[in-house]
Amino acid sequence: MKKELLEKLINNNAVVGIIGLGYVGVPLALAYANSEIKVIGFDIDEFKTQHINDGISYFKHISSEQLKKVTETKIFSATTDFSEIGNVDVIILCLPTPLNQYREPDLSYVVKTIEAILPYLRKGQVLSLESTTYPGTTEEELATRISRKGFQIGSDFFLVYSPEREDPGNPNFSTSTIPKVVGGITKDCLEIGVALYESIIEKVVPLSSTKAAELTKLLENIYRSVNIGLANEMKMIADRMEIDIWEVIDAAATKPFGFTPFYPGPGLGGHCIPIDPFYLTWKAKEYGLNTKFIELSGEINTSMPTWVIHKVNDALNEMGKSVKNSKVLVLGLSYKKNIDDVRESPSVELMELLRSKGAIVTYCDPYIKQFPKMREYHFELNSVLLTPELLRQMDCVIISTNHDDFDYEMILQHSQLIVDTRGVYRGFETDKVVSA
Ligand SMILES: NC(=O)c1ccc[n+]([C@@H]2O[C@H](COP(=O)([O-])OP(=O)(O)OC[C@H]3O[C@@H](n4cnc5c(N)ncnc54)[C@H](O)[C@@H]3O)[C@@H](O)[C@H]2O)c1
Fold first, then answer.
1. How far is the CA of 319 from the centre of ligand 1 (A)?
2. Ligand 1 pocket check for 113: Cβ under 6 Å
3. pTM of the prediction?
């Protein structure tokens, strides 16, 4: 079985099934389809499968032209019919792995999906989990369920874990140029996993186990979370000492070794960095271990929106105004620049804090025309048009996300007060620009 599957993978004859057509699943599907490998995308959301089949992108960073190129030829198609799983050779899971209300791992998307596809799995397939998760998930949640079918993992069914490193909107890297880590349940699983990804990715990094691959992804994200936490703490210290943190980071970054710059901001956002570290925190408890760095950086990073609001409060106070009844415009709703993803965005937290203090809040984001439905917060708002007149009417403008599309000169010229959380005006500060 291994030989047959390996041959299909090496000769690009395998049919790839990707479950979860989100930020991770769609670019991956495109990478396979662009290499002339047949891809079937699966999702429970009919809006998405329909849009894929119509060649219409629902992501800002993926054009409909890119999609049409491969959907018109039907090399990439999408369906909500999971019985099709029996017709693919490869199953890749790109499903959400959020936290539940107790900030514990919520693996329900992965578990429900594996239970749903179990009847359609057949011998000779490989399944790869790409969702970020704690070490042990592939063995504990997937291998055990697949074995229940009587499959021998490593001889008649193959199981690997390969974390996704997608960075939506990053112009310097694409799915195929980002090296991909893979771990297999057995050596043969690993061999299959390497072949699966080598067909589309320039550099595949094999690891000794699925657990090692799972922990690798968490280390990468915890490294970011801890270093952003450090940058945020340094920002607050520098602020009190009246030192420009941006100047300091730029200076430290001139050291050619031993220092990687991380930048402060209004807080953490996105599906990954605020969430993934807590997958390890939860699992570490099983071993009687605490994850002190994770918790500390989490504490600092989640306190940032409140710190920014203190700065807004002080700045308005200097002008003889209060937050209550002030008109505040939040620039940028997405969690980072030039993308349309609002998941866990600190901008939303800022808006909520301002609203709770009685401010009249509006937002402008060229990529998010309407305030989206969110689990915790809701604003009946549409993005406003950024004009000199509007800026002049605002008591305060907060730069929360530094989209390249904003006209920063116009903002500087016409705003009464700017609270800049992204260092956009570093070196150009005037009386009306406050760093936060
Ligand atoms: N977004 C990123 O930049 C990024 C980067 C690296 C890793 N990751 C990880 O990749 C995983 C997926 O993230 P994402 O950003 O693509 O999520 P997403 O929410 O954009 O996409 C998930 C998709 O899965 C679909 N889905 C949900 N339940 C389903 C089910 N039972 N069957 C089929 N489809 C179902 C949803 O409709 C959605 O289209 C997560 O574990 C995330 O942590 C994400």
1. 45
2. yes
3. 0.93
CA distance 391 to 415: 5
CA-based nearest residue to 161, from 189, 188, 202:
189
CA dihedral (374, 375, 376, 378) positive or negative: positive
Distance (Å, rounded) from C-alpha 235 to C-alpha 427? 15
Residue 258 is given by DSSP the state: S
* Residues listed for the chain: 436
pLDDT 10s digits, 3-38: 999 999 999 999 999 999 999 999 999 999 999 999
Specify the ligand 1 atom closest to the Cα of 133: 41
Supply the residues annotated as catalytic.
Answer: 272
**pLDDT 10s digits, 132-186:** 999 999 999 999 999 999 999 999 999 999 999 988 778 899 889 999 999 999 9
Query: Which residues contact residue 94 at a Cβ distance below 8 angstroms, ignoring those fewer than 6 apart?
Result: 18, 19, 20, 21, 22, 24, 25, 28, 130, 131, 164
- In 310-413, where do the E strands start and end? 327-331, 360-364, 396-399
* Ligand 1 proximity of 44 Cβ (cutoff 6 Å): yes
Going from the C-alpha of 228 to that of each of 57, 320, 372, the distances in angstroms are: 32, 34, 27
Quick one: pLDDT at residue 428? 76
Distance 23 CA to ligand 1 centre (A): 6
d(CA 57, CA 44): 17
Per-residue DSSP letter, 141: I
Cα–ligand 1 centroid distance for 136 (angstroms): 19
